[in-house]
């Protein structure tokens, strides 16, 4: 993409309203724009990040055997009356009346609707287990929306729902998502630690939050250091192997780890002092097993092997890609701007032409731009008339993994300059060597 | 995908509420499920089709130089007061109050919001032309939603917005989208004819609808037959060549073509009788040039080359991917079900195992399934216990381009059966030959 043709409105100054670093950097980098309190437009650079996150989330859901569908944003109030949550949900639910005065709502979550879809179509234990997920915009009318997309009102959520014949099978479905989440966060460049959690309005008695550590995190978390060195399950993990999944979950829940609410000071202090951490954390995923909480009142029954109807055992599993975009910045930035993990970066390479209009610089840049694209790399080519200093500041701010600089002086001695974001020193090398390095 | 693990709830009978064939077939094939009047969930098969459509729409927008972003679904009423459309829009607009009694709405279109984003960030003619688009769910509270996703309340829309310094440049931006639309519909397997159109609540004085012909279309259209043989612009069409674009638009508007509202009987009857058609049509895209209708009241000004501020000239360009899914079915089906164009089909191949549990059939199917996936083909493998007749009926209903049948009798004589959806006769051939045919 040529920057002269792109739409990336950089702000030189940090906006006053932004209280946390990810919000400031997302506004400054032209990733998002607030359209109303807690409601954001995703500008092109932000949307690319959001899509990169979503793609990884989707691939890992698919790998774990979950099936994607897409539920609408607007739901009927009556559906929520069936579960008893319509009145219970409170003011966070955005309630709407249509032109015929029907009571509707903007879905804050989808347990009711997916249960309705399931019960209308699945009748037999032979069709189980099933895990259905979607990635859709949700709305929660927070009393005080803030922190940018970290706690917005309209937000993107991947929510999966599992259906099983009994609790034992449901536990395996839960473990599948547990393992898929470990893989998802690792691929996003994050160290996420599962922690036992309260279930809140979703309900149920088994639940884990996945927490990443970030100095600027929203809450305090405590745990055993060894988690940080645990290896993530391989891409070829067998999601049909219940015992194998359980072994992974056992290992990832074997050591102490807790959020503030669940913190057990005595257990924590029993850990060797050099093997424990007390740090700031950000919740990036939350999984629940809640049994028959929705299937019983909503009559989502299937016929069991013995011919008797039983309510299905359910779980739900959430990841917020829009929140993750901010969380990844909280976990990766410096004073100059964002430092994206490779898998999430909006472009892999920022190609900087120090002297547009200079025929040697233009020719070298066009050649590199074409060749980098030929290698399948996504490139942002700064072909604008800005000063060199402003160009460097912009590249640091938007945090692309690689910066490739072409200037008349370097070209005269046959070199360009390659720098990895976050590393100290740029490297002078031939254009060919730079291409070879970037293709690795 | 193994059908035994998939979620594709087939209905044997046509649902009574469905008045048109695409609605009936989408319900029967388990593509969609109604969640409220005019509000649908996209079940896995339907979502795959929707995503295939969206991918092509996106690729052609990108090719034409449009830049993708994503605006939220919920908007502030005040924004619409600036353009004067808040009161004018009527009951089709879904109006909402949040917990603080702020007046909001579910966006039915985005001219106001994109103008707000533009004016906040673009100040100079040097940054023009720009075309910004998004693909997002919209809501129009139709008084009588019907025809399934053809006329639903919550629907997916690609809407692009162009910004230019003057009318001449804006016309080129308009032509870019005109050409992009020709390419988009051709890639979707459709013959779309541009026709002059009224501008309705969007406003402006230049507008084209893109209409496809389908026996079951919603309205009558009239035109010159030669349009049906026109060649679509190549993938390497130069979107920076204003004269070249104008020549394509001139050619595609050179002959008579009109919707009912714009029909000129005398002009139509002046055509040679064998070179004219009167047929049913479906609108699949609509483009508008409306000049400064929004930029003036909303003060979207840029500094021109002479240093003076001028309001930008704008156009907007819509395609509804959710509506297209239905329109493509209206244009391609038979009594047995849907006939998908290759580019849109949810799977390329339906692999039918006539005798699951038979070790030879299972082994041959597993081998073909793995090899087809290895070829990069998306395969739906029917490994269920259904009767052969039901399996064939399902495959015809869901309309995959290729059906590959493996049975014990054929295997004994070394053959499998390959059939193209819509063609008359299946072909008996070796598994290797079938793979070779499908890899072409």
From TrEMBL, chains A, B:
Domain Aminoacyl-transfer RNA synthetases class-II family profile, residue spans = 38-341
Q: Which GO terms describe its biological process?
A: prolyl-tRNA aminoacylation
GO CC annotations, alphabetized: cytosol
Q: InterPro entries annotated for this entry?
A: aa-tRNA-synt_IIb, aa-tRNA-synth_II, aa-tRNA-synth_II/BPL/LPL, Anticodon-bd, Anticodon-bd_dom_sf, Pro-tRNA-ligase_IIa, Pro-tRNA-synth_IIa_bac-type, Pro-tRNA_synthetase
Matching CDD domains, A to Z? ProRS_anticodon_short, ProRS_core_prok
Q: SUPFAM superfamilies, from UniProt?
A: Class II aaRS ABD-related, Class II aaRS and biotin synthetases
User: Which residues lie in coiled coils?
Assistant: none
EC number from the UniProt entry: 6.1.1.15
Q: Which Pfam families match?
A: HGTP_anticodon, tRNA-synt_2b
UniProt-recorded Gene Ontology molecular function terms? ATP binding; proline-tRNA ligase activity
Q: Where is this protein primarily located?
A: cytoplasm
Q: Write out the catalysed reaction.
A: tRNA(Pro) + L-proline + ATP = L-prolyl-tRNA(Pro) + AMP + diphosphate
Keywords associated with the record: Aminoacyl-tRNA synthetase, ATP-binding, Cytoplasm, Ligase, Nucleotide-binding, Protein biosynthesis
Q: What class of enzyme is it?
A: ligase
Q: Where in the cell is it found?
A: Cytoplasm
Report the protein's function.
Answer: Catalyzes the attachment of proline to tRNA(Pro) in a two-step reaction: proline is first activated by ATP to form Pro-AMP and then transferred to the acceptor end of tRNA(Pro).
Outline the subunit composition.
Homodimer.
For this chain, the family text in UniProt reads: Belongs to the class-II aminoacyl-tRNA synthetase family. ProS type 2 subfamily.
Q: What is the protein's name according to its record?
A: Proline--tRNA ligase
